């Protein structure tokens, strides 16, 4: 189609064509001056794109206002041709002509024209669907990620067709946000199927495309209220598939960022649907190994829920303890950071429900041989809100964490962790010296009891060895052989 247009447009000379094959053909604005022959050829080549005698290569300024919408539809039909960008030398002039037409369409939509007619809305959605909705090739990162490499170290992958895709995304964003677009009419074409395809595009490896999609989906959610429950359901499906099936998706961070702004608009009290989303989607999202990629957005969403309804803090902490990464030190540090944020906004009643399992886990973190985990756990005592919670419940909390502090003080290998441990012990002693003295006595008794149990177990084994060595070996009697 594009080659036919370019072949029938007037050219300067045959020599100039052969000398500059990569030069684009005249733009849409200049094509109207090609003479009657060019106009006749254009009409013959584009019978489906000509509406009421309007040629798609005319400029908007060259037609009366009553015909601009028809020209708009014609140009949209013209841009439904998709080119192959894997070969940069292929269809160079056609690509440039399409890009110029897309820019003209974008400029037209940006000027807030008269209200879009239903055929114009249909043509706009069709053009965006043809250009944007596509199947992504197999991921180039699949082999490296399966071999254990860190996805954070991979270079982003850029789509070679971005010179066209970017303009189409900008067009769609301007189109959706335009005051000339009536929601009642547009919802028939920006429907559930269209939204599903938009959300599928979030798996693109190109970060520029995901940023454009983020802005578009956010505007669609805000403008089309009828589609809001469906959008949330589709996003939940993506999260479910990511957590429980594939653990591979490129757009989790962007989808969570959209949902973070959605949560701020939730009315109080929260619906049961939203609480289920927190417990079944957001909390399990802490499980995948790639948590670091979207941790900031996930933490923001969780904190938004707790600020909306403080009673959910206990549920969140229990969920974090359930998915605690005991074998991943990097994730442990992130979990500890999120716990501190939650403890800053939790109320006393919810804190008392979870403080025993919480500080039992913190005690294990304090004794971690990974110095960053131990340091991050001890840094909690630098937070005034956390210290205040501990002070009000010290009779329960201090006996749980004090043995871990004593073990650190006795034989932890890292000097920074030792210094922090001594500072925390000093702080607890200033908080309640009598309780610390009792904890020290209990710790010594416990250590003496453990030592006596070890000695008694050793004596039992020695008696068994001696008794076995005195018995004569007859028949199939088992023999204890000493390797010393």
Automatic annotation (TrEMBL):
Biased composition (Low complexity): 28-38
GO biological process: signal transduction
Coiled coil, from the record: none
InterPro entries with a match to the protein in the record: ARM-like, ARM-type_fold, PP2A_B56
Location(s), subcellular: Cytoplasm
Region Disordered: start-end pairs: 1-38
Family named by the database record: Belongs to the phosphatase 2A regulatory subunit B56 family.
Record-given protein name: Serine/threonine protein phosphatase 2A regulatory subunit
């Amino acid at each position: 189609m594009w080659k036919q247009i370019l072949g029938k447009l007037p050219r300067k000379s045959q020599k100039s064509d052969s000398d500059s094959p990569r030069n684009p053909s005249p733009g849409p604005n200049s094509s109207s001056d090609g003479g009657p022959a060019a106009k006749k050829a254009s009409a013959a080549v584009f019978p489906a794109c000509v509406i009421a005698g309007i040629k798609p290569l005319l400029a908007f300024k060259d037609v009366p206002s009553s015909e601009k919408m028809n020209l708009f539809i014609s140009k949209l039909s013209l841009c439904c041709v998709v080119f192959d960008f894997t070969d940069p030398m292929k269809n160079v002039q056609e690509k440039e002509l399409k890009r110029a037409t897309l820019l003209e369409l974008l400029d037209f939509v940006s000027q807030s024209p008269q209200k879009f007619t239903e055929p114009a809305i249909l043509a706009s959605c069709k053009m965006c669907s043809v250009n944007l909705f596509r199947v992504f090739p197999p991921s180039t990162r699949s082999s490296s990620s399966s071999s254990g490499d860190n996805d954070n170290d991979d270079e982003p992958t850029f789509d070679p067709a971005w010179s066209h895709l970017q303009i189409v995304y900008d067009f769609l964003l301007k189109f959706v946000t335009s005051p000339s677009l009536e929601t009642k009419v547009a919802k028939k074409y920006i429907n559930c199927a269209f939204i599903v395809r938009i959300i599928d595009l979030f798996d693109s490896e190109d970060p520029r495309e995901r940023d454009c999609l983020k802005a578009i989906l956010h505007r669609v959610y805000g403008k089309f209220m009828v589609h809001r429950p469906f959008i949330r359901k589709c996003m939940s499906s993506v999260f479910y598939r990511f957590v429980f099936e594939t653990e591979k998706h490129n757009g989790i961070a962007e989808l969570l960022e959209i949902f973070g702004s959605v949560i701020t608009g939730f009315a109080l009290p929260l619906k049961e649907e939203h609480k289920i989303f927190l417990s079944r989607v957001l909390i399990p999202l802490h499980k995948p190994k790639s948590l670091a990629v979207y941790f900031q957005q996930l933490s923001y969403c969780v904190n938004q829920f707790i600020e909306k309804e403080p009673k959910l803090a206990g549920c969140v902490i229990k969920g974090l303890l359930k998915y605690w990464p005991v074998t991943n030190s990097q994730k442990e540090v992130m979990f500890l950071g999120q716990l501190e944020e939650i403890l800053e906004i939790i109320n006393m009643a919810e804190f008392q429900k979870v403080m025993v399992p919480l500080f039992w886990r913190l005690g294990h973190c304090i004794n971690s041989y990974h110095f960053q985990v131990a340091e991050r756990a001890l840094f909690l005592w630098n937070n005034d809100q956390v210290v205040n919670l501990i002070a009000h419940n010290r009779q329960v909390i201090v006996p749980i964490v004090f043995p871990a502090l004593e073990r650190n003080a006795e034989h932890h290998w890292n000097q920074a962790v030792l210094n922090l441990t001594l500072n925390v012990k000093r702080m607890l002693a200033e908080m309640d010296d009598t309780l610390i003295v009792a904890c020290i006595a209990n710790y010594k008794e416990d250590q003496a009891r453990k030592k006596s149990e070890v000695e008694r177990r050793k004596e039992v084994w020695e008696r068994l060895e001696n008794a076995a060595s005195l018995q004569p070996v007859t028949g199939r009697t088992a023999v204890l052989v000493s390797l010393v």
